[in-house]
C-alpha cells in the first residue's frame, strides 16, 4: 500500500511466501541454493542473519530500480545449542524432547537488497513450550513431518496450537519472517530511494 | 490425538473454526445468538469470560457423553476502555488511531461444557502496535472491512503483519481462541471423565 516496490522472495519456504504475499505488494518467488552450515566459530545468534545475506549473495541477477530482493533464515537456539532442520524422525523427536517444557529463542535473519543498497537485520522472539508426552511428540512427527523446519516444529500447525504457551516478540518471526520489520524497511528504502532520485 | 471428544463449536468466527479444526479432532460448527452488550458495572477484564458462558448457556441441545461444547468471546482493552466490534468505518478508524503506537490487552474468554460439567477461563495477551499513518488506517479499513473484529483489527491479516511489533502471551488468544489452554482442558476433562466412568 502506497509502496511501489516489486518484491522478489528467494526462499523455498511456503510459510514465508504466504506471509510476504500478505503485504499486498507484487511478489515474485524464486530460490537460491546455499550451504546452510553455520560457519565455524560464529556466535549462534549471528548465524541466521549471516545465512540470509549469503542467500542474497547467491542471487546474481541484476535488480530493476523498483525491485527488492528478500531472503531470510530462521534458527532455533536453546541455551548454547543451535537446532537446525532435523535430518530424520529420530532427530525431530529428540529436538522436541529438548524444547518441551522449556523456553527457547527463535532468531530470524532477513536481508533486503535493492539495486542501490543492502540492509540486513535479525529479529528475536522467545517461545515457551508446555511439557509434551512421548505420544504427542510421536504423533506430531509422524503426521506433520517437520523436516523442513528449524527446531522440528511449526508454530502455525498442531504443535504450535497445543504446546506453545507463550511468545514474547513477533509471532511472524517464529513463523519465519518478521513482517513488521520487513515492511518498515521497505518504507525506509522507498524514502531514501525517493530522496536520491 | 488420543482424545476421543467430538467438539461442537458455537461461534460465527471463521478464525475460531479454522483454529479449532487444527486440533485434529472432529468439529461440528453451530452458533448461538446472544446479546453481547457488557453487563453494567462488570469489570471489563471479566466481560469476555462472562459472554463465553452466556453463549454456552444459549446452547440448549443435550450433549452426548463424548461431546464438548466450546464457546468463546474476545475483547480488546485499552486502559479502562473496552473496544467492541466497530459499527462502521469511522468507528473502526477511530479504534485504530487509539491502538496505534500503544500497547493494549486482548482477553479471550472460553467456556467448555460436557454433559457432566462446565469449565470456563480467560486468557490475556499483551499486544504492542507500531505507529500508523492515516493512509495506512484508511487503506486497512477500506480493504479489510474489520467490522466483525473486536478493536477493529485482525492479527492474522495485513495490519497484524505491518503493525504488530510485539506480543506477550499466546498469538492464538489474540486471534480469538487460546488453543493451548483449550487442549489442556480437553485432556483434563477426558481424565476426570475416565475416572468417573
Order of helices and strands of chain A: EHEHEEHEEHHEHH
**What is the CATH fold-level name of chain A?**
Maf protein
Give the largest interface.
Answer: A-B, 30 and 30 residues
The assigned structural class of chain A equals alpha/beta
Strand element count of chain A: 7
- Oligomer, anyone? homodimer
C-alpha geometry of chain A? elongated
Work out the helicity level of chain A: 25-40%
What is the makeup of the main sheet of chain A?
Answer: 7 strands, mixed
> How much of the residues of chain A is beta strand, in percent?
25-35%
- Low-pLDDT segments of chain A: none
Distance between the termini of chain A: 21 Å
Radius of gyration of chain A from the CA trace? 17 Å
CATH structural class of chain A: Alpha Beta
Average of per-residue pLDDT values of chain A? 95
What's the architecture of chain A, going by CATH?
Answer: Alpha-Beta Complex
Q: What number of structural domains do the residues of chain A give?
A: 1
What is the tally of helical segments of chain A?
Answer: 7
Amino acid at each position: 500500500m502506497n509502496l511501489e516496490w516489486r518484491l522478489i522472495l528467494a526462499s523455498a519456504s511456503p510459510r514465508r511466501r504466504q506471509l510476504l504475499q500478505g503485504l499486498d505488494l507484487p511478489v515474485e518467488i524464486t530460490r537460491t541454493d546455499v550451504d546452510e552450515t553455520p560457519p565455524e566459530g560464529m556466535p549462534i545468534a549471528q548465524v541466521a542473519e549471516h545465512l540470509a545475506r549469503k542467500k542474497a549473495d547467491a542471487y546474481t541477477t541484476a535488480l530493476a530500480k523498483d525491485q527488492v530482493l528478500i531472503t531470510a533464515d530462521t534458527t532455533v537456539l536453546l541455551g548454547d545449542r543451535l537446532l537446525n532442520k532435523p535430518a530424520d524422525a529420530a532427530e525431530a523427536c529428540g529436538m522436541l524432547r529438548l524444547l518441551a517444557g522449556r523456553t527457547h529463542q527463535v532468531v530470524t535473519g532477513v536481508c533486503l537488497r535493492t539495486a542501490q543498497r543492502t540492509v540486513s537485520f535479525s529479529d528475536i522472539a522467545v517461545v515457551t513450550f508446555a511439557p509434551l508426552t512421548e505420544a504427542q511428540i510421536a504423533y506430531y512427527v509422524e503426521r506433520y513431518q517437520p523436516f523442513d523446519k528449524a527446531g522440528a516444529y511449526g508454530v502455525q500447525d498442531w504443535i504450535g496450537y497445543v504446546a506453545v504457551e507463550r511468545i514474547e516478540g513477533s509471532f511472524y518471526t517464529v513463523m519465519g519472517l518478521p513482517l513488521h520489520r520487513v515492511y518498515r524497511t521497505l518504507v525506509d528504502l522507498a524514502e531514501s530511494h525517493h530522496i536520491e532520485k
